[in-house]
Amino acid sequence: MRQGLVLSMLWSKSFLTSSVVLWTLFLVNLAGTIYGYQWYSEQLWYTWDNKPGWYIWFVPDSPTASLFFTLSLLYLLLDRRSSHPLDKKPSVLRGFVEAFSLITSFKYGIWAVAMIAAGAAQGNPTNWQDGMLTVSHLGMAAEALLFARFYTYRMLPIVLVAGWTLWNDFMDYQNGIFPWLPEVLEDDLGAVEMFTISLSVVSIIIAILYLLSRRSAKQKTIH
């Protein structure tokens, strides 16, 4: 009984959108974003030196996802300070940030964990960093799903983010700028590409389902 009450409280909007929770997640994700870009720094420099310069925008997948989740939290924090919450008149920009946050955070959160697990299954040595990355990326996927019900995006932002996400997959695997993989997975690149594209599609569908669920809830409220 108590466990049910605790879970209900942790799931509640009042708890998740409280100042303490929002600021804690904002700072944690901001720190993770900075760390993520540092993690990709070697590949960014390699891409800059060996590929067209504009390719670097498509290199740091996970930190860009966490950056947009951080920005989505900023919108929720601004809502708390406003007497007229921003979600009353959702903008395309805010919707794009939120849709990008949901789709890419879920996608790359699951993707990174899957790659670590697949590498380990084929004999790639693991260390504490792999454990840290597994926990942090699972957290990325979980928090994206947890906060998606508070988002305000509509269909246009989903379409725009879907285009970016699928184009990013094309850039990664047709132009060779995918996140560096363990050596044991290099001969499985075709399977990794198909898994990545499939995960993109699943993530886009999830964003659409959240939108439809939100619309359905509003219609029930009206009636």
Automatic annotation (TrEMBL):
What is the residue range of the signal peptide feature? none
Organism name: Paenibacillus eucommiae
Could you tell me the keywords of this UniProt record?
Answer: Membrane, Transmembrane, Transmembrane helix
Query: Does this UniProt record's set of keywords contain Transmembrane helix?
Result: yes
Protein name, per record:
Membrane protein YpjA
Query: What are the TM regions of this chain, as residue ranges?
Result: 54-78, 99-119, 131-148, 155-171, 191-212
Q: Name one Pfam family in it.
A: DUF1405
What the entry lists under InterPro entries is as follows:
DUF1405
